[in-house]
Amino acid sequence: MTHNPLRICDVILRDAHQSLLATRMRTDDMLPIAAKLDKVGFWAMEMWGGATFDSAMRFLNENPWDRIRKLKEAMPNTPFMMLLRGQNVVGYRHYPDDIVEKFIVLAHRAGIDVFRIFDALNDVRNQRWAMEVVKREGAHVQAAISYTISPVHSVDLYVEQALELQAMGADSLCIKDMAGLITPYIASELVARLKEALDIPVHLHSHSTSGMATAALLKAAEAGVDIVDTAISSLSGVTSHPPTESIVSSLQGTWRDTGLNLNLLAEVASYFNEIRTHYATFESGLKGVDVRVLQFQIPGGMLSNLVSQLREQGAADRYEEVLAEVPRVREELGYPPLVTPSSQIVGTQATLNVILGERYKAIPGEVKNYIRGFYGRPPAPIDPEVKRKAIGDEEPIDCRPADLLEPGFEKAKAEIGDLARNDEDVISYALFPQVARPFLERIAAGDGSSEELVAAIAAAVADSIEVGEGAEAARPGRGASPWKLSGRPSRRLRPWLGI
Question: pLDDT below 70 — which residues of the chain?
Answer without folding.
Answer: 299-301, 303-305, 448-499
